Amino acid sequence: MTAQDARLSRINNKTPGMTILSAAEEWLGSRSFDGEIRQMRQEDLPLIEWGCEYLRYRRVYREVFRNSLNGKSILWVAVTSTGEMVGQVFINVNPTHAYKLIPSQSMLLSSFRVKREYRGCGIGSSLLKTCERCASERKIGFLWLNCSKSNQNALTFYRNRGFEIFRSDPGDWQYIDHNGNIRREVDPAWSLCKRID
Ligand SMILES: CC(C)(COP(=O)(O)OP(=O)(O)OC[C@H]1O[C@@H](n2cnc3c(N)ncnc32)[C@H](O)[C@@H]1OP(=O)(O)O)[C@@H](O)C(=O)NCCC(=O)NCCS
């Protein structure tokens, strides 16, 4: 086990909603993340819009949050000590449409992102480890996600953390934006999965 793995392991052996302050400070060195990873709360909903950048997904996020209240999803956020929302990942607990492709119960990750100025500080790795721990605790065999084919940085990030491509996805979906208009986004993606022990 590498030193980084050992630190990640210590961080992620904590309980859900744990603060990663002290371990993260040690881990991140000069670019320390003075904050916590915790489950999302209703009052966080405006903050995950990152100003106007993700305003168009307001209704989608509200729906996902409602799902989290009845156990269909688990939403993790990374928040600085000053309350700035700097990262997030959503877990869909029961994505039945994956069963034909992945031979086990699985969890689907989505909306995974870290604010640009906080990238490379280990926050993404910690969010991912948190998801892996969630899956492991529930005896879920696989995590999977879709990643844009043009997003080489993220593809490398996932592959370096044990994810493998298992199919091509058209990445064609529709949603209703904050103004009530139907929007379509097409972004061809790779689906990647990782076995969780
Ligand atoms: C991919 C992402 C979530 C990783 O979060 P992060 O906090 O930067 O991740 P970490 O600091 O734990 O790890 C950094 C690793 O990601 C890589 N990386 C990917 N994109 C990066 C970026 N824009 N800036 C810095 N590092 C990046 C680094 O090379 C590093 O790789 P390595 O440790 O395997 O050598 C984040 O870069 C991000 O939000 N990217 C834009 C949104 C996105 O692509 N989301 C995924 C959609 S499927």
Walk me through the structure.
The chain is an alpha+beta fold and 197 residues long. It has five helices and nine strands. It has one domain: Gcn5-related N-acetyltransferase (GNAT) (Aminopeptidase, 3-Layer(aba) Sandwich), CATH 3.40.630. It has helices at residues 3-12, 21-28, 58-69, 123-137, 152-159; strands at residues 35-39, 73-80, 85-92, 106-114, 142-148, 164-169, 172-176, 182-186, 189-195. The strands form two sheets. A seven-stranded mixed β-sheet has the order 1-2-3-4-5-9-6, sandwiched between helices. It has a two-stranded antiparallel sheet with strand order 7-8. α1 (3-12) packs across α4. It is globular. It binds coenzyme A.
What does the secondary structure layout of this molecule look like, with pairings?
Layout: H1 3-12, H2 21-28, E1 35-39, H3 58-69, E2 73-80, E3 85-92, E4 106-114, H4 123-137, E5 142-148, H5 152-159, E6 164-169, E7 172-176, E8 182-186, E9 189-195
Parallel strand pairs: 4-5
Antiparallel strand pairs: 1-2, 2-3, 3-4, 5-9, 6-9, 7-8
This protein binds coenzyme A.
Coenzyme A is lined by residues 112-114, 119-125, 145, 147, 151, 153-154, 157, 160.
